[in-house]
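If you are new to this repository, start here. Below is one unmodified record pulled from the training split, so you can see the exact layout before writing a loader.
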Amino acid sequence: MNATEHDIAILRKLQEADRKVLTAKKEFENLPHRSAILEVRSKKDEILKKKVQVQDMLDDEEGKLTSLAQEDEQLAKKQDDISQELAEVQGDYRAVTSKTRELDGIRKRREKVSLELSRVEEQINKINPVMKQIMTALSAMEEKEKELVESFQKTGGSLRMVIVEGEKVRAELAQMIDPALLKLYEQTLERCGGVALAELVNNSCGACRISFDQSRLSRIHSEAPLATCPSCHRLLLVEE
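And here is the target side for that same chain:
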């Protein structure tokens, strides 16, 4: 296959640039940070769902507490007002009986409200520690996520720089080689898993390690300096 020394030199540099880019891309895809971040975020989402549920329960109980406290305050005021009215109607049997009955009703209602207040306060006292645990767990997950993201950005950023620089070098090299030869190289690169070039070493392909008989060697040498491996079909660099 026709290729000048310049072409061969450029092909070698292309292969080196492509290897660096491919290696960096694989390392980037396999960074453990990625799966760890996804796992932490999944756990954080579960904690947030639990937080919403517990917060709803807490809001409901606190709403009841506020309502009951307001009712008790109103009943206490009403109780004071009726007690004052009762003092003013002493001697009036019917009025005294009516006010006394009304006071008794308020007293009974306040007793019920007091019991309900105690029950609600007990519920709130049970919920608050659970919410505290949830917030502690959420804070821990957020801190872990932050650390993982920072580490990923640092490591991943370095790899991205290698990729960008390698692709830049590749683009420059691609302008320095015959278009037909570049096309053949790229087709081989795609077909052969990211490695397009191999060296003929001791009558064997340096990539697939297959040894060639004399007939194949003769054909390979006739195509020097650039042949095709009969086995793996990579471009085979042959020293003349």
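Two things worth knowing about this chain: The longest helix spans residues 93-174. Strands lie at 197-201, 204-205, 226-228, 235-237.
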